Structure formats: structure tokens, C-alpha cells
Amino acid sequence: MKVILRTVMTLLLLPIFIQTASAQLTAELDSISVTSSRITSTISESGKSVAVIIQKQIEAMPVTSVDDLLKSIPGINVNARQGFGVQSDVGMRGSTFSQVLFMLDNVPLNDPLTAHFNTNIPVSLGEIGQIEIIRGPSSASFGADAVGGVVHIKTKMYMQREIDKPDGLLSYADADIAYGENNLRMGDLSFELQQDRWRLSTSIRGVFSDGERLPNPGFEAGVSDQTHYENYFELANFSTSLSYRMNDHWSWYVRGGADERDFSARYFYTRSEFDESVEQISSRWALGAITRDTGQNRTEFNISYRNVEDIFDFNSRIGSPVNEHITDQFFVNLSHEISLGDLGRSSLSNSRLMVGAQMLDKQIESTDRGNHQDRMGGIYLIGSAGWSSGFSLTASTRLQFDTQNDPEFLPQLSMAYNRGEITLRSSMGRAIRVGDFTERFISSQIEDLAPLRNIGNPDLLPERSWTFDIGMDWRPTNRTLISPTLFYRTSSDLIDYALTNSSDITNADNLQPDENYFYTLNIASSNTAGVEFLASHRFDVGSQKTVRTDAGYTWIRTSGNENEISKYIANHPKHQFSFTIDTSLSRFRITSESSYRVRNAESADLIAGDVPDGYFLTNLKLQYTFSGWPLAAYVQGLNLTDTRYQEILGAPMPGRWLMGGLKVRIR
Hey, what domains does the chain have and what are their CATH numbers? Predict the structure, then answer.
């Protein structure tokens, strides 16, 4: 055991001595295209703080889900309720989890019921081609919810839909099968077929476990006869896509699938000793894109539909009603981009203009929230220009419409100056977020609601914020990146749950007299300031032997109304350190990912709740690729130090979890 710990600590401390950082491919700032403002640009031209995770990194990292991948990115805070992608709240730059927009292939993923479901990613890890993390406000380009930033997941088929394969029939197949402790079974299978202008892909993913056996706080409180409970989970999704490039200018792409989840949700949402929650979520979804690109003009039409059924059983054993929610979300977006060239000026190397419109329709039928419909949309204008001097500028503006609120004007500006080894960048923008169905209507249909439960507020105003940042990307060598960023956000009408007496709640008639509830309110104001620092270095240590080291640090300070007892505001680490090492030694590959977080401690003895003020986590993956065979074997350890911790009060995170697996790749 001591040998193992010494080995782990050596891997963790190595980045400190060589001064490197951040789990992303940002050293090559001019080799990766991103759509941080919908207009495609390189990272160095965007003026934004952008991180990119590509497929090769996903395959190597000791992670099991997208939210695990995000934990090592500076500026992102992940509060999970379970491991393995069961459920996580993702904030960015100290934002609440509702203020981050998740997208898949240029359509929004954010669930209209609750942002707790935003990380229910409906595609397998094997189908993801690239994940773009856009820090800072992006509402002008992408719409509401993009306050803290955007996580844009792009599948391989979406990224390659406009590329011909003239070499005849090509087929690919990948399989990743693993087994681990607590009867963990994982499988990720994908298949791709390409011929000429046609592309087809299909994938299926499953993650199942009996879960850890944990002490039952309800037994200690005398309200349950079960001494322990199991944190089980069963997750599965299926996805298929088809694309066709009709000619040199036109292409179309469609994708559809299903996502099924069944898991223990005990203490996910409440602090009640009676909580024995289980939850089942079924999603059906489809999206499509039609693109016309002539070089100077580019038009894209996106459409998506998603149906989600959520069945939540708090404790039917004691007669608590089972809540059922069915949501439907329909989205369309149309954009047209024009390349204006140099506009007749020799100093102007490139300029582009995009105009677009989008509409989002959301509906819910719920046993405890009622039946409701919202519709929102906007028209936007985006312009970008670059000069031969190295200066680039992107300006965006949007007029946002909402059936529940007045129109909002959302401007945004980002700038970059590239000069040799250094890129200076800055951005500023206004963003909004509209309350979801849960924040506005939760528990409104439950008679005689028990104290300390959540109660919605149908009269919520939209959140409004301004964010400013300034940063630098320094590349002293072509293998090294050092990147500091300062940011500041000021928010008004921030939506959050605050402990409120029923006598002060005038728009709910199902509360008990003179009792306290977590009531959604527009907190008067909030100010968030922070620093992000990342660095990255890659070097060769011999033939076919490379080491890439990444590390990052984030400091965040959030202040709000001192007299408000808030449930989610400032629920982020004050300090967050991350360390990643990826070592390739011929056929061996060793990847470690570690982090240390400092945050506000929180406890609740009634439900054995304990959020520590600091905790250290480390994951490790060892992989060997067989010579002459399309086969690799790996062992993986999560939370090697067996840290006992919670990130959401009452929901225990997994302890040490060991697993092993095989990967097969047929080309």
C-alpha cells in the first residue's frame, strides 16, 4: 500500500516541478477551430477564454462521463450527487448550475424542468469528437442561460458531415467493456460507416452498478427499519446519425436516440430524514441540420425535439405521492454568414457577418408543478474582423423575446491581439437567464406541503448580469502555454432558493402556517470576482515516449445579501487546484488526474450530511496496447485515496472504486 501511495504522489507532484497546467489541447491555439460566437475562428482569434477537449484525450482520461471530464478544467466547478455521470450540477466562473448552457451539435440541451438534468448527455463518449468550453457570457450568440459560459459537445459525425470520403467504403468499430467493484458493468459500443458522400454512425452505452452500501440516516432517526441502503444506478443510451453531402455546397445531417436512467436519488434534493428517493428518467430526442456553403456565403438551419419523462418517488412507502413530469422542447435556428474579405482595405485581412434567428418552445405536464408552456426566441447579429497587425474583434448583439417577460437587449464584445508568443484578449457582455419550470412551480400542486421543502415562485424575473474579463496566452515554446485570466461578474435579480417563512409567501396557498420553506426568490444582487490560471507543457522523453502535464488553479469570491440564507449561491469552491499527467511509453499509457478543492463547509446531522471545507481526489488509469492486435487492456482507479466527501449536502460521493476493461478498435 505504501508503494502505491508513493507512486501516486510522484505522479501528482511531477507537474509542480516542471510548472505546467490544464487538461486541454490549448497549446496549439491556431490549429483548432471553435465556434465561440457561432462564427468559426481559431482560439487565438476569438478573444474568449476557450478550452477544447478532443477525442484522443477523452479516450485517455481516467473518467467515465462528460461531467468527470469537466472537473479538471480551470473555471469550472462540478457539484456531483453521484459518480459515473448519474447527476451533476456544473457551474462556470462561480455561476449557479442553471447559468451554464449545454449544447449538442449546435442545439441546446438544457432541460426545461430543471438544470439538474443538463449533464444527462444523450450520446456515448465514443461518439464525441470535440468539447468546446467557452468561459464567460454568450447569450448574445446562443440565447438565454449562457451566463457563466457554454459547454458545446460536437459529435464526430456532425463535425465531418461536409467532408467527402472518395476512397470507397470505410468502416470503423470501437468497443470499450469494463467491470468493477460493486458489480459495476460498463459498455460503450460505436460503429461508423462512410462511403463517398454518405456517413452513418450508431452507438450504445450502458453503465450499471448495485452501488455502495451506505448507512441509512432514516434508521438512526427512527423513521425506517432499514439499517443501510444501496446507491444503485442504471444508465443507458442509444444514438444513431446519418449525413449526406448532396453536392459541393449542400449537406444534411440527422441524429436521434434515447436515454434511460434509473437511480437512487436519496438526499439529492431534500434534507428530510424521510427521503428514500428513487428516480427514473426517459428521454427521446432528435436533431437535424441542413447546410449550404459556397465559400463566401454559409447558411445553416438547425432543428431539434426532445421529450423527457421524469418519475420521482420521494417515499411512497409512507404514502408520499409519486411525482411525474413530462416535458417537450422544440428548437429551431436559422443563420446566414457572409464573408466580406478585406472590404477594400489592405490592413484588414478578413471580416465576416452573421445574421440569425431562433425559437425555443417548452412545455410541461406535471403532477406537482402543473401544466405550463413557455416560448422564447431572438434575432441576432454577429460581426468579426481581423487585421494584419494581429488585432481581431468580434461584436454580437441580440434582441431576446420571452412570453413571460419584456424583450431584452444583449450586447457582447471580444477582442484579441496576437503578437508573436503572446495573445492578449478581453471580452465583455450582458447575459440573462429565465427561471425554469421547477423554480417557478415546484410543489405548487402538493396539498399541505411539509416544511423545509422547496416551493416555486411564478412571479420570478429573469436574472441579468454583466461580465468582464481580461487575460493572456503566452507560448514561450511551441509546446508550452501559460494563461492567466481575471474576471468579474455583477448580477441582479439572481434566482435562488432562500429559507423563507410561509407568512412572507403570498403566491402559494398550500403551505403550513408559520413554517419555513426554501422559496425561489430574485436575490437583489451578487458580485463574483475570480482568477483562472492554467499552463500546459508537452515534451519527448525518447522514441515514442511523451509526457504531457497539465495543471490549473481557480480562485473565486462571490458576495451577496448577507441576510439571505441561500441554497445555491456561492455553492462553489473558493480555491480549486487540478493536476493532470498523460504519459505515453510505447505501448503503455499512464494518465493521472487529481484535484484539491477548498470551499465553505456545511453539515446536517439529520441526514448525515457533511460537505468538507477541503478535500483531495485523484484518479489513475493504466493502459497497455497489444502489438499487432487492435486491442488494449486497462485498469482504472477512481478516488484512489478513498476520500469520503459530499458536494451536495446529504448525497455521499463514491469512495475508492477499482475497475478493469478491454478496448477493441477495428479500422
Answer: 2-615+641-650 (2.40.170.20)
